[in-house]
Amino acid sequence: MTLSFKTCSSSSSSHSPCSNRSTPKSFSGDDSQFFHQKSYRAHTTTLFFILVSLSFFGFFSLYCSPNAISRAALFATTRQAKSGIVNYVINAQDSSHHQSIRRIRAEAVLWPGWEILVIVSPEEKVMPPLPGEDYTCFYPNGEKSTARFTAVLPFTNRTAFRCSLPGIYRHHHPIPTPILASSKSFQISPESRWPDLPLWNFVVFEAISTENDVVLFVKGPNRGLGSNKPPESFRCVFGEESDSAIRTAVTSSVQEVFRCPFPNETIDNPVKIYLETVATNKEATKTVPSVAYFSPKRRLSESREKSLLCATTMVYNVAKYLREWVMYHATIGIQRFIIYDNGSDDELNDVVELLRSERYDVTKVLWIWPKTQEAGFSHAAMYGKDSCTWMMYLDVDEFLFSPAWDKQSKPSDQMIKSLLPSDQSMIGQVSFKSLEFGPSNQTEHPRGGVTQGYTCRREEEQRHKSIVRLSAVEHSLYTAIHHFGLKGEYEWRVADTEEGVVNHYKYQAWPEFKAKFRRRVSAYVVDWTRVSNPKSRDRTPGLGFRPIEPKGWAQQFCEVRDLRLKRLTKKWFGYSEENGYRMAWQR
Ligand SMILES: *[C@@H]1O[C@H](CO)[C@@H](O)[C@H](O)[C@H]1NC(C)=O
Ligand SMILES: *[C@@H]1O[C@H](CO)[C@@H](O)[C@H](O)[C@H]1NC(C)=O
Ligand SMILES: *[C@@H]1O[C@H](CO)[C@@H](O)[C@H](O)[C@H]1NC(C)=O
Ligand SMILES: *[C@@H]1O[C@H](CO)[C@@H](O)[C@H](O)[C@H]1NC(C)=O
Fold first, then answer.
1. Residue 249 alpha carbon, nearest atom of ligand 2
2. Residue 387 lies in a domain
3. How far, in Å, is the centroid of ligand 3 from the Cα of 314?
4. Is 121 among the domain residues?
5. Ligand 1 centroid distance, CA of 28 (Å)
6. What does pLDDT average to in each consecutive run of 10 residues of the chain (587 residues)?
7. Rounded CA separation 179/135 (Å)
């Protein structure tokens, strides 16, 4: 199929208004660079005049801030007039394609790695593409990039794509939001608007409704420890300004979590939800851009009985371990598993399906947001609230057990419950110390699973992991990953290691460890190959920063032989076989 394109620009006299070319790629780099610098300068000048004429210096600091905040609002109108207008004109023989070309309403945000996450708006009902169906991102200068299907987001069922940001826009501020269309060629009308692309460091990325309020997950306004701004400085905005948005007060602002009551007005359809700062005498209102929607009040699941004990975990490509982790913990009393999947591309779905077919209650929640483990944990505390009394937060390489269970010939589903206080107690959270296991001479993933393969550990007890009573969690949903903040009337208990302990199979056989640490699901360590935070406890002692097997890896972190959980699980889950035994989770 040969298409020819015609590119027109009305932006500047020095730029030739129309040029024919065979593909948009032949657009000369220098040419467009010039165009962009020029138009950027034009914006800056316009902005300067707006600022001066308003004598409004509050805006100035805002403009200088690294966040692309309400420059959005200021630029929206000027950009429209100034930016290049591109017409992709399709050859006559291709006119049959015309019908299928369609602009799709979508939200977008710039992600790390110059990727744009483009999320189709709920009213569009775009399904994941079928083979041969193409979606494309179009940019104002005539460039385009393929929109790769990424996921269907949970709760709103919106289809998400990823587009690579063309190089020319990478040093451009603000960056225009591309137009998503359902074909490789597309006619962009002169009226097309190119709103500023929100950046991942300043955006409302997710929202969940509870019984009486809505929880927003927001990157940007609160940054770093102790920098939470007071709730009074924000408001939630339900809907677009043009459709008479409704505002409600923010009741909590901690970390990336903000909460607001529902509006009194009933909202029937999903609407975009924003966070905005309240104007002060120094600064005007600014709106945090958003890709999140408020869905009308969630109805409590009628059919599901409230489980006593649930577990949640955030995973990335750990399907291999999931079966052992679920089967073990289900047997000792976890009734429901909520797995936050950080975009795994391994056989996670198959493992989850298999477990479900075996009647394990496993729910997968896609959580694609980068570096948001705390936010994900807070989300889980709300998501699980109607169905779970207690929530255990453990990673899939962590296994809770009590040394006292050694005496039991059979496991029971009352075992974890026995480690928790009674319903009447005011203990809101119980934490267990963890023990870090080393590779224990293994050079590959042990066939019988981690509980069988890893038996040697470091002596020192490590950070704890917790089981929290969800009704006791502080309104702010504050979490430090290892535990939650509790409402004032509740106490927090740390169990001693005779009662209960977490075996953490942290330093596994080299191929496993390497894969895990490369794409670590941790909010603290940015990148284990980067020497940014070398003192963090998440760092591996003596490992350095390159994924090269350290000498004697298989023997490292081996100070204490600890066979307690191996024996327990072998007794409970092992079946004799000709050449030894086989574990229930082995397939
Ligand atoms: C999303 O899809 C699921 C499964 O198909 C469905 O149960 C749910 O109602 C849908 N949610 C929305 C908001 O459309
Ligand atoms: C909703 O209505 C109540 C009672 O009239 C009022 O006190 C409250 O401020 C209203 N809330 C909002 C968000 O408008
Ligand atoms: C999910 O994985 C990506 C890529 O490995 C990583 O950058 C991101 O931080 C992870 N997300 C969370 C919530 O940790
Ligand atoms: C690892 O192998 C060495 C040498 O064979 C042996 O002495 C040691 O006990 C083994 N350690 C474990 C944890 O199996």
1. 13
2. yes
3. 10
4. no
5. 46
6. 31 31 26 31 39 35 31 31 34 40 89 94 81 86 91 91 95 92 76 91 94 93 83 95 89 96 87 94 93 75 72 92 96 97 92 97 95 94 94 97 94 96 94 95 93 95 94 95 94 96 93 71 39 48 62 90 96 92 92
7. 10
Helices (H), 128-214: none
> What's residue 130's pLDDT?
76
Q: What's the CATH code of the domain at 258?
A: 2.60.40
Do 214 and 280 belong to one domain? yes
Strands 491-494 and 103-104: unpaired
Q: What separation, in Å, do the N-terminal and C-terminal C-alpha atoms of the chain show?
A: 48
Query: ω into residue 174 within 30 of 0, thus cis?
Result: yes
Instruction: Identify whether residues 214 and 286 lie together within a single domain.
Output: yes
The answer to the question of residue 4 being in a domain is no
Residue 549's pLDDT is 79
Which among 235, 259, 264 is the best mutation to test ligand 2's pocket, defined by most ligand atoms within 8 Å of the CB? 264
pLDDT of residue 518: 58
Q: Please tell me the distance from the alpha carbon of residue 70 to that of residue 60, in angstroms, as a whole number.
A: 11
- What ligand has the least distance to the C-alpha of 250? 2
Indicate which residue's Cα is closest to atom 7 of ligand 1.
155
Contact 168, 123 (CB under 8 A): no
pLDDT attached to residue 537:
47
Q: Give a yes or no: residue 452 inside a domain.
A: yes
Whether the CB of 521 sits within 6 Å of ligand 3: yes
Q: Which residue among 437, 440, 441 is best mutated to probe the pocket of ligand 4, counting the most ligand atoms within 8 A of its Cβ?
A: 441
In this structure, the residue with its CA closest to atom 11 of ligand 3 is 370
